[in-house]
Design a protein that fits this description.
Elements: H1 8-29, H2 37-55, H3 60-93, H4 96-107, H5 113-126, H6 131-148, H7 153-170, H8 175-184, H9 188-216, H10 223-236, H11 245-255, H12 260-278, H13 280-287, H14 293-306, H15 316-321, H16 331-349, H17 352-361, H18 367-384, H19 390-399, H20 402-405, H21 410-424, H22 432-441, H23 445-448, H24 453-468
Helix pairs in contact: 1-2, 1-17, 2-16, 3-12, 3-14, 3-16, 4-6, 4-10, 5-6, 5-7, 5-9, 6-7, 6-22, 7-9, 8-19, 8-21, 9-21, 9-24, 11-12, 12-14, 13-14, 16-22, 17-18, 18-19, 18-21, 18-24, 19-21, 21-24
């Protein structure tokens, strides 16, 4: 059975249907939309895409292969997400996160805490080249620290994510930083040097904004409240710098290029061991028995890794900070990711996404409009295919020949892929990145996206450079 090429209007029907459903869900359910309604919206939109694909001659078996392939590409992210839930649990009962919060409250003040959170996240992410690992470890502690100082969680999450994605983007160890130049046809070093021209101004503007907010935001009088929280943590946990050995070991493994999944798994186990050694009272409390410490240790490790767990202290605010949900808390996010990948799989398999982007390319006449179109295409794929890698790979393939034909060096393309594809993925709640970071930080995407200044400024910066001809490297056009 032969398949037909879709028209732009036909290809856009599932996208329009999805947008309308998502908007209606937000208006109807608010923040609860990601708890089920958005998943159903994605599945309903998938069926609309299937109907459109059937009209074009695609059989269900072909579309199912596309769905399976799409979900398969997200499996590493799903495994990482589960391990992050387990790691957060063991790092909490071991006192690692409480120790980070304790020392952070001792050092930071509301005026500089947003800037500090952004800078710390950037430095930590730069070493391993992983925004996910940074947010899952240091980010979890930072959001507890800064929130305790009286600053809203959405704003704190925006600072952490901004810094983490800057470090991820500029690290030569980052997978996306290696993927973008490979798709564009340039080398890693050239890519990073050229990308720095837009990335450093973006992070500088971001830090200035966070500094201004630090001076102007109303954090109320947190002095006594912070002291009370520190006392509650100190009474409940054994607090010592020795506990930092575990996160240092995880960072060391990642710097040594150990993959994220085994590194996080080892970090989870080390967290459980640290809990058994340094936090016997917590272990017996979570384990539910004081008669057999071996049994209590086993039960506490399993509970912290797998399910919701609350540690009760003398402070209600501290209780909120120390609650974890384990792997079970990540299942709703995984549900969202799978539904999103079903939609993206059908749209890609039927050529609907390709048709939409090919139509848009025709309107890119100038250098500025070409770069803007590339950036828009990356954002479009983050919103529709729900996968950061597809938002780099597909536009990279689409525009690979267009840039040289326009006399533009390939590093212009690789920079745009990163400036728009890598950083905007976290702004969509149904994207693997947005769903993950929202779950890890326990802050909805709708609450933090407007504060991810670096992620919002980066695509605008690369578009501005394109329209004003700033640092646009030229080459001789290819002779056909």
């Amino acid at each position: 059975m032969k398949t037909k090429s879709p028209t732009f209007r036909l290809a856009f029907i599932p996208i329009l249907f999805l947008i309308l459903l998502l908007v209606f869900n937000v208006l109807t359910f608010g923040d609860d939309a990601t708890g089920g309604p958005n998943q159903i919206a994605l599945l309903l939109s998938t069926m609309v895409a299937v109907i459109v694909a059937n009209r074009l001659g695609f059989k269900w078996e072909e579309l199912q292969k596309g769905i399976v392939s799409s979900i398969n590409s997200a499996l590493p992210a799903i495994l990482i997400l589960l391990l992050i839930g387990a790691l957060a649990g063991t790092w909490m009962i071991s006192g690692i996160v409480p120790t980070m919060i304790y020392y952070g409250l001792e050092i930071l003040n509301p005026t500089i805490c947003l800037v500090a959170a952004c800078i710390v996240s950037a430095i930590v992410a730069l070493a391993p080249g992983s925004s996910w690992t940074t947010i899952a470890t240091v980010g979890v502690a930072l959001i507890g620290i800064v929130t305790a100082l009286g600053i809203g969680q959405g704003l704190v999450a925006g600072a952490i994510i901004s810094g983490a994605y800057f470090g991820d983007k500029m690290s030569p160890l980052s997978d996306t930083t290696n993927l973008a130049p490979a798709m564009a046809g340039t080398d890693l070093v050239t890519h990073i040097r050229y990308m720095a021209l837009t990335t450093f101004p973006s992070i500088l503007i971001t830090l200035i904004i966070f500094l201004i907010l630090g001076f102007t935001i109303d954090t109320h009088d947190t002095g006594k409240g912070v002291d009370a929280m520190m006392e509650a943590i100190n009474q409940k946990f054994f607090i010592s710098p020795i506990l930092f050995i575990v996160p240092a070991a995880v960072v060391f493994l990642i710097v040594k290029k150990v993959s994220a999944i085994p590194a996080l798994f080892i970090g989870t186990l080390l967290g459980a061991v640290a809990a058994i050694v340094f936090q016997p009272e917590i272990v017996m409390e979570v384990g539910g028995t004081r008669e057999n410490y071996f049994e209590a240790s086993y039960r506490a490790a399993m509970v912290s890794m797998s399910m919701s767990n609350e540690i009760v202290t003398g402070s209600a605010e501290v209780n909120d900070l120390l609650g974890t949900s384990g792997m079970a808390g990540m299942l709703n996010t995984i549900w969202l990711i799978i539904c999103a990948m079903c939609f993206g799989g059908v749209m890609e398999a039927a050529g609907l996404l390709h048709k939409i982007t090919q139509t848009v390319i025709r309107f890119a006449k100038s250098t500025g409009s070409l770069i803007a179109t590339t950036a828009g295409t990356c954002i479009f794929f983050n919103a529709t295919a729900s996968d950061q890698y597809l938002a780099i790979v597909v536009p990279g393939k689409m525009f690979e020949d267009v840039y040289p034909e326009r006399g533009l060096a390939p590093e212009n393309l690789s920079r745009t892929l990163e400036d728009a594809g890598t950083v905007t993925s976290v702004l969509f709640p149904w994207n693997t990145c947005g769903a993950t970071q929202s779950a890890v930080l326990s802050v909805s995407t709708g609450d933090y996206w407007m504060y991810c200044f670096f992620n919002l400024i980066s695509p605008l910066m690369t578009i501005i450079y394109g329209y004003f001809g700033v640092k646009i490297k030229k080459i001789e056009k290819k002779v056909k």
